[in-house]
Amino acid sequence: MQKSARRSQAIAQPPGRPREFDMDTALDGAVRVFCERGYHATSIGDLTAAMRLATGSVYKAFRDKHAVFLAAFERYATVRREQTRSAAARGVNGRERLRHVLLSYVEHSQGSEGRRGCIVVGSAVELSAVDPAVRARVNAQLATNENFIAGLIREGQADGSIPRHVAADDTARLMICITQGMRVVGKARLPLDGTRLVGVAMKLLA
């Protein structure tokens, strides 16, 4: 009887105060600093400044820096997935959809975003070998991107814009190597001739 009463009292308690900040906006700030500096070189002070939050608010919303990083990784993956699919939607067939995806990677590998870098590529280099949680997320994101590209190739084969003899899975893996390489080149601040590079990549579909 007493247990039931205590349980009812607990349920009746008003919920805690809602967060007074927008989570996506805060995580976008975390994404920027993690991309620029990497995980180990980013301090809690860097994060509070980038996220525009007090230290206490960061620790209240996240357990530690690692938890912030994982949340930032997921936020980055979500945004980039939307950008990639939006780029693909500009094409009228599978071949053109894939070309627009590659052009999107060129666009995001140049300028300030290119210099900032990609959290997936950075994580693969810095953390995948020593952090199972990050490795799982990196592998999942790369697999998602690869499967999406393979799907576009198969779509092109179905609509006649890509020859049937093209090996969809193998070509998609090579395309992933190209796109992630673009992000590395962009981080290194080397110039990218997008039209020329995408033209060469599209020859894989001949």
Automatic annotation (TrEMBL):
<feature type="DNA-binding region" description="H-T-H motif">
    <location>
        <begin position="43"/>
        <end position="62"/>
    </location>
</feature>
<dbReference type="InterPro" id="IPR001647">
    <property type="entry name" value="HTH_TetR"/>
</dbReference>
<dbReference type="Pfam" id="PF00440">
    <property type="entry name" value="TetR_N"/>
</dbReference>
<keyword id="KW-0805">Transcription regulation</keyword>
<dbReference type="GO" id="GO:0003677">
    <property type="term" value="F:DNA binding"/>
</dbReference>
<dbReference type="GO" id="GO:0045892">
    <property type="term" value="P:negative regulation of DNA-templated transcription"/>
</dbReference>
<dbReference type="InterPro" id="IPR036271">
    <property type="entry name" value="Tet_transcr_reg_TetR-rel_C_sf"/>
</dbReference>
<dbReference type="InterPro" id="IPR011075">
    <property type="entry name" value="TetR_C"/>
</dbReference>
<dbReference type="InterPro" id="IPR009057">
    <property type="entry name" value="Homeodomain-like_sf"/>
</dbReference>
<keyword id="KW-0804">Transcription</keyword>
<feature type="domain" description="HTH tetR-type">
    <location>
        <begin position="20"/>
        <end position="80"/>
    </location>
</feature>
<dbReference type="Pfam" id="PF16925">
    <property type="entry name" value="TetR_C_13"/>
</dbReference>
<feature type="region of interest" description="Disordered">
    <location>
        <begin position="1"/>
        <end position="22"/>
    </location>
</feature>
<dbReference type="InterPro" id="IPR023772">
    <property type="entry name" value="DNA-bd_HTH_TetR-type_CS"/>
</dbReference>
<keyword id="KW-0238">DNA-binding</keyword>
<protein>
    <submittedName>
        <fullName>Transcriptional regulatory protein</fullName>
    </submittedName>
</protein>
